[in-house]
Amino acid sequence: xxxxxxxxxxxxxxxxxxxxxxxxxxxxxxxxxxxxxxxxxxxxxxxxxxxxxxxxxxxxxxxxxxxxxxxxxxxxxxxxxxxxxxxxxxxxxxxxxxxxxxxxxxxxxxxxxxxxxxxxxxxxxxxxxxxx
Length: 132
Fold this sequence. Notes:
By secondary structure, the protein is α+β, with helices and mostly antiparallel strands. It has helices spanning 5-19, 30-41, 115-121, and strands at 23-27, 45-51, 59-64, 77-79, 88-89, 103-108, 111-114, 125-131.
C-alpha cells in the first residue's frame, strides 16, 4: 500500500533518470495522468502513453528526455504538499520556481494546472510539486 502516490510517481521518475532508463512504467491514476500531460506540455518528458489494458489499474509509460550528453531534462522534482502537511496558496502567493524557469504544479478547483496558468486564472490551490 502506498500512502503518497504522487511522491511515488515523482520518485519513480527520479530513480529512472538516475539509472539512465529511457522508459519508466508507473501505476496509473487520473491525477498522475494529468501531471504527466503537464510534464509533456512543458517539455520535461519526451513522450507518454496511457496503457489501460494491462491490469485493473492501468500503467503510464513515460519516455524520459535527455540531451546529447545524457543529462536529464528534469534537474529536480520536489514534492511540496504531503499527506501529513498540505500546502495551500491563494492567488496572490502562487509560487515561482527559480524565477519562472521551473514550474509548480497545483491542484485547483479548475483541475491540475501549472503556476503560470493559475496566475492567469487568478486562483490558488494545493501546491503538489516543483519541477525544474
